[in-house]
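Priority: low. Protein: Major facilitator superfamily (MFS) profile domain-containing protein. Input follows.
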Amino acid sequence: MLAAALVFTGHFAFFTYIRPFLETVTGVGVTGVATILLGFGVANFVGNYLGNYLGGWMVERSLRLTMIAMPLLMGTLGVSLVLLESTPATDAALVALWGLAFGAIPVAWSTWLTRTVPDEAESASGLLVAAINLAIATGAAVGGVIFDLGGALDVFAASGAVLLLAALMVLIGVRTRPLATA
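Result:
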C-alpha cells in the first residue's frame, strides 16, 4: 500500500502544480496552459482507455513489470521536466506522456489487489481508495510546502523522486501472483 500511495502522491504533487510550472518555468500564457492541459487530459483519457486494453494486455504479460514501468516512466518524465531546456513543445510532449502513463496505474494496482487477496478484494479495495485519498492530500499539501520554499521546479523534482522511489519499492518488495487459470 505504501508503494501505491507513493505513486499517487508523486502524481498528484505533479498534477496539482502543473499550471504554476507551465506559467513560471515554461513561460506560457493562459491559452498555452489550457492547450497543454487539454493535451494532458486527452493523453490521460487515451492512457486510461489503453490502460484498460493495452494496460490489460501488459498486466497479462507481466503485472510486476507494468507496476514498475509506469511510475519509473513518470518519475523520469518529472526529472526530465526539471533538467531539460523548457520549451512549450517539449514540456507539452512530456506532460502528455505523463498523462498517458498514468492511465495504466489504476488498472495495475486494482489487478494486483484482486490477485493478491482475491477473497478480500472489496476490503482491500477500500484500503487502496483510502491510501489514494491520503496520497492526493499528501501530494498537494507537501507539494505546496515545496512550492512555497523552492518553486515549481522543486515540486517536479520531488514528484519525480517520489515516483522513482515507488518504482524501486515495487521492484524490491511487491510480489505479484500470476493470472489464475479457469
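The mean pLDDT is 89. The radius of gyration is 16 Å.
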